[in-house]
Amino acid sequence: MGSLCSFLASFSLLIMVLSLAHGQPLVPALFLFGDSVVDAGNNNNVKTIIKANFPPYGRDFSNHKPTGRFCNGKLASDFTAENLGFTSYPPAYLSKEAAGKNLLIGANFASAGSGYYDSTAKLYHTISLNQQLENYKEYQNKVVGIAGKANLTSIISGAVYLVSAGSSDFVQNYYINPLLYKVYTANQFSDILIQSYAKFIQNLYVLGARKIGVTTLPPLGCLPAAITIFGADSNECLAKFNKDAVSFNNKLNATSQSLQKQLSGLTLVIFDIYQPLYNLVTKPAENGFFEARKACCGTGLVETSILCNAESIGTCANASEYVFWDSVHPSEAANKVLADDLLSSGISLIF
């Protein structure tokens, strides 16, 4: 059975390569929702401190300028767009690029600092998932005006939708917020998040989405900032945080299987980010990396967003040697590894 699955995956990848050789993307459009893992610049236009539109962010991007991505270069979702055959990335919906024919390849609605828990976005004055859905409705109306209703329908139904959220809910809210951690256990809080997740997928489905990929939580206890702040002088991944992530991910899988059965015609794929990133962190040398405990930016221990800036002392010269770019987000090199993993597990979203 294993060899058959391997053959089918290889065969599908071959078809993909042949399709790309003809210069056409494999799907009509790509839409992104979620947090800083996929935000391509929406927060640039929001009054929040959660931004990345200044150096050294973006220093290894195509034009060597910050775009609002929380990375030195490309996000995993950028590599995914390239793997799907797009020659440009879906524009951040709040950017000036999100206009006219640029919208026909999709749009990016993600906002760093948001999550499945609406209050997480409120805490940081970012764009909640519910508001991201409202923006998506507005997008649909715009495309009807640009290309007509028939074209919108084919774009919407054939597109791939990527959702990445949940990390901010834990790391930037639950773990540091006594109004949450003194009221709910981590298990109870994850149940609340899963209810919001299910509602979000159902709402996205009602709006026409049929091919949805959702990322799991990463190993939260291995994020440099988490180890620094909560690790009590340890340099090891925090077992409790990782356990919380695994518990959430198990619920995410079970709920997604249930949603797939309930919603006719839906293909819902869970992308496991946890294990690939855990492998990079615990076995960096085996995967071509030099450093996994510290990030590239500044000391690599706590810097992220406004703390990771042009004045940060100690920023590394070569980010490709580091698993993490800042204390929360992977480097472009790590994102490439994650994106390649997504490609093989997301075949069913394309064919």
TrEMBL record:
GO terms for molecular function: lipase activity. GO terms for biological process: lipid metabolic process. Gene3D superfamilies: SGNH hydrolase (3.40.50.1110). It holds the Pfam family Lipase_GDSL. InterPro entries: GDSL, GDSL_lipolytic_enzyme, Lipase_GDSL_AS, SGNH_hydro_sf, SGNH_plant_lipase-like. Residues 1-23 form the signal peptide. Keywords: Signal. Belongs to the 'GDSL' lipolytic enzyme family. This is GDSL esterase/lipase.
